[in-house]
Specification:
Radius of gyration: 24 Å
Shape: globular
Order of helices and strands: HEEEEEEHE
Number of helices: 2
Largest sheet: 7 strands, antiparallel
Strand content: 35-45%
Oligomer: single chain
Helix content: 25-40%
Distance between the termini: 58 Å
Length: 141
């Protein structure tokens, strides 16, 4: 009789354990579905997702940082000064340089009349830039 009770207890724990693991997986799947963007754009090795009219970076399938679509960080292939870059040769107006980081990364402002992702695509496809990414709004705790 003791052996039967012992076997029953073990089977109960196994059953509860299996259900618990299944519930965790189901909660992750539901969370992932709720985290699906309305649309995505891949640009220069980064994935961006639109979530209720706001753009975020997507890393490993998850929404991460809020994107500042008004500012793009650029690095020329020759690590040159972007002040000397001719944006007109790729069909863009002169972009306002609003910041410099470590003398090779430049933050440029996207004018309101230009689509930020179309502008980013034009810049990237020019093959003049080693790196291109939208600036981010990062929350600090």
């Amino acid at each position: 009789m003791k052996a039967l009770i012992f076997v029953f207890c073990i089977l109960s724990f196994v059953f509860i354990s299996c259900n618990r693991q299944d519930n965790v997986l189901n909660e992750r799947n539901i969370s992932q579905e709720m985290n699906q963007p309305d649309s995505t754009i891949d640009l220069a090795g980064y994935r961006y997702g639109l979530y209720q009219d706001l753009w975020y970076t997507i890393v490993d399938g998850y929404k991460v940082d809020l994107v500042d679509t008004k500012h793009i960080m650029l690095r020329l292939f020759n690590d040159g000064d972007i002040n000397n870059y001719d944006f007109g040769k790729i069909g863009l107006p002169r972009l306002n340089i609003v910041g410099v980081t470590t003398d090779i990364y430049y933050e440029v402002e996207i004018p309101d009349e230009l689509n930020p992702f179309d502008t980013g695509k034009i810049l990237w496809e020019s093959d003049d830039f080693k790196e291109l990414m939208f600036n981010l709004f990062i929350s600090v705790d």
